[in-house]
Amino acid sequence: MKKVLAFILVAILGYFMITGLMTAQEFSTYGNVNLDEKISRNFIDKDVNGKSDEIIYGQTSNPETGSANYVTSIIANYRIFDTLGEVTVLFVSALGVSLLFGKNTKKYNFYESNFILKTASKMIFGLILVVGIYIFVHGHLTPGGGFPGGAMIASSILLMYLADNEFKANINKFKQAESLSGSLILVIGLLGIVTSGYFFYNFLPTGTVGETFSAGIIPIIYTLIGLKVGSELSGVIYNFMLEGGEQ
Amino acid sequence: MNLQILLIAIPLLLAFLSLLLKKQSNNLLLVAGVMNVAFLTIIQKGTTVIGGFQPPFGITLVVDNYSFMALVVLNILFLTTILMSRNSIEEYGSVLLVAMAGLNGMILTGDIFNLFVFLEITSITAYILASKNNNYKNAFHYLVIGTLGSGLFLFGIALLYGMFGTLNMHDLSIRIADVDSAVIVLPTFMIFIGLAVESKLMPFSSWVKGVLGNADDIVAPLIAGSYAATSLFVFGRLFSQVLVIDSSLKILLLTITVVTLVLGEFAAFSKSKIKEILLFSSIGQAGLVATLFVSGLVLPAVLQLINNVFSKVVLFTITGKIAKDTDTDEIAELRGIFADHKIIGVSFTIASLSLLGLPLFFGFYSKINVMFGLFSLNIYLIPALILFSTIIEGAYFIRMLLNLWNTGEEGEKSKLEYKTDKIVSFSKYKKIGVLVISIVIVLMGIFPSLLLDNLYGDKTLLNENNPEYIFEIKGGM
Amino acid sequence: MIQYFSIILMLIGIFGLLIDRNILKLIVSLNVFEIGLNLFIVSIGFVNNGIAPILTANNSSSNLNFVDPLPQALVLTSIVIGLGITSLGLAFARKIYKEYNTFDLNEMGGNN
Amino acid sequence: MENNIIEIFIGILMLFAGIKAVTSKKMLDSILYLSLLSMVAVVGFVIMKAPDVAITEAVIGSGLVTAVFLLTYSVVKKSGDIA
Prior knowledge:
C: Helix Hairpins, 4 helices, D: mainly alpha, flat
């Protein structure tokens, strides 16, 4: 009975949504979007603050934002305030988890660990860690960036926790890394106010599009975000592995 | 140089640092609260852009008359709440710092997706605060409803972006004005649902009872005060400026808000616990304020909102403390409790009477504005319902006050031996705090122009319902 | 096409929220809803025959037919927020389990 | 046209996984179907030319979210018997 009612309610909502989409003339149908009508056109041409020429990979130098990856240029430059909020969301939910589990200390052991498992996971641990760091350092050139990179670091920590019962990462080190990288992100933002009057102003030269050392503050911020996200999520996983949440 | 970014950046920086200085986090919270109130005196009206990118491409922070008023209300409420209940903060200092940053961000931002991000930050802090004192099940309930609501809110934003190709609120309002308003029915409704969850409008407010009914003397005044004020101010910003609503949807939204008002007051009438009475009264008041915003009466809505949140902070702080010390908030068991606590009792009474809208209190002034505003729009059904709900409100508030002051049974002569044997001890911060707020309520009631003159320096605003004046600086183009 | 699938996926999530009484499955439903929503937002920016919004040695000019990068940036934010909420919700779930020794709302009593 | 067929295939797979995740009686099944759904969504993101989103969804959505779910599930399961 309840299921039928729920189904009817959802069907009404779905009818409302789909007809609403179909009747709205302004809403372009799937695939027929004209970017010239959207603000993204200027993000792609990198001419938000004034006309610029065609951007060419490996040639254009000192555009207003230097990232070759457009998504990164939006996340870490045009809309960095959203990203700061995003980091804060993770920060506060990690804080909430540690408030809920913080009084527990004993770690839960799921399996008996053995030598082969331990050695193999140590090797994989290093590999994942390097890939994670590569991802956020090259976030302005290749897909990826601070968030997946940080999440990879956290998953390598998870692997070690699962494989090795003696593995102990110092939770206070995580907290220090989290706190310092978060504060540094804000300090970079405030430096922008000091240098030019705008919060998070990109005060470094943006270099040539496509080079490793380009895009101004973007790689620095992405690295800090990667470290912060990595340590936050490692903290969350550490808390979830603690015993005592249950009887 | 505009410094409004510091209202967000400083609490956030202190929140990050408070992980290292765990023991100092409550002091950092006070520092941030005082600094934010101090910043209010030097903030200039105007717009700043983040990263130096021009609107509508970059994210803007907007301080106009409307958001300045909201910032003043929010930061003063927040600071008084944490000052009055500083012993109850415990280890939640860092969470409150993030909450402060998020609430200020919600009011300041001029970008609709950025609003979503700040909405999520504040709701997550609210979920964590709701779980204080082992109230996990209700906090979980709140989390599920809140997440669904903000998901629908994001769906609405995505639709707006798909239609108009921009996220800046001012740019959006210009482009929306050009099209037939039937186009934006679906996104408007989705955004309405998202904000209705946070503003406690009726079908989406099922979380309120569990959360506020079990909250202590810091969580309850925060959620019924600062959080409620912020979400209603944001509601007003979106529904009276950005999303101009077409008539058929307007009727639907007005129905929801008016029903919230009437049902909320009826539910409050039928309860016997102080907290439940107050929380249902909050729901009803949220319905009233939302009704006014949807009708386009911005100034009366803001006045009513201010009256409601300041009164509610006093009432919830006192009730939260009583419930914490005595483990009950049944009126029948607390008979005559104010006989021993005269200052607290007087403040409680003033706050309640102002909420009712009796003369001499600020509530009278705001109710008068509400009524004249609605009559000027030639709407008569809604004022009738508002008057009707005020009568219900009066009945339960007077009943509650009589019982809390009077030591005897109802209708009998008061005798000392009927007085409750429950003991409450109020700290001097609480006594001073609630007394100051009630004095302010009385002063603003007698000299209503004090508030508005100091904020705007323009008396004409008092008699004219002129929304354009409030939205002086739009999204910053 | 994928746009309509994603809306139906969102509806499935809401349906799950309405019928499920198990708190872990409520969080699963929320995640289903969020995945649908994320797919929908990305689909808003899709352009027929568009290319991924990254300048490379092969796609080296800004005048090419890129898909819209902005919705993708919004979805990245949304995914991360989803992770935060999911972990907080699961932490609540464990605390609730400790209190009631069950994940089932029906067995806890009460009426939510 | 070829793209269309893949899209429809993926869409149907997603709906199947979504319905299963929401309606399965066993909690473990729900979690695993959610993981499957999220992996299929990764393919969907790749089709819509969103490599950044695809990587993030793969690492966070189908990686960490599933891990946190399974941690909760197995810790609770070890401490008492649940279905």
